[in-house]
């Protein structure tokens, strides 16, 4: 399976493919960003209070919401993510990147990038970023349609947003569309 990416000017970027046949990385990205094309991936919806986590199947076709992690400091966060990695044996991380509608990054984008770097170090996993514009809106819309109470919506929001961003990433790989934020 190959992945097509494009440069900022819209032209194809043949240099974006990693030298390994089973990995792909963003053009101009560090080699730590190479995420394998098969195996379980974790989707991460970063937040300062909560982190939503989703998981893919081994074929990277489908995603499911997994956890909402309440943040309680670096050590607690590290233990939580190591436990998730031990249980699900992912091969990479897809971290949501909150960017403005204009495509410009925000302070939250920079925080998400730092978190991804930290998480990659803690877990030893490669990571990449996924544009997460509208994921929370989509999650809220789905939860409202399910007629859940405000409390139940809050309990599910972040892991559902993580599932949506991970599924968007997986679908883009399948169709060859670039929706990866670099």
Quick overview:
The protein is α/β, with parallel strands linked by helices and 182 residues long.
Q: Could you explain the architecture of this structure?
A:
A five-stranded mixed beta sheet has the order 5-4-3-6-7, with helices on both faces. A two-stranded antiparallel ribbon has the order 1-2. It starts with 22 loop residues before the first strand and ends in a 7-residue tail after the last helix. It is of the alpha/beta class and 182 residues long. A hairpin with a 4-residue loop joins strand 3 and strand 4. Helix 3 crosses helix 4. The chain has one domain: 2-Layer Sandwich (Nucleotidyltransferase, domain 5).
SSE pattern, N- to C-terminal: EEEEEHEHEHH
- The level 1 CATH classification is Alpha Beta
Number of helices: 4
At CATH level 3, the topology is: Nucleotidyltransferase, domain 5
Helix % is 25-40%
State the total count of DSSP E strands: 7
Spatial arrangement of strands, main beta sheet: 5-4-3-6-7
Strand-residue fraction? 15-25%
Q: From the alpha-carbon coordinates, what is the Rg to the nearest angstrom? A: 16 Å
The parts where pLDDT drops under 50 for at least 5 residues are 1-32
* Strand-pairing-aware structural class: alpha/beta
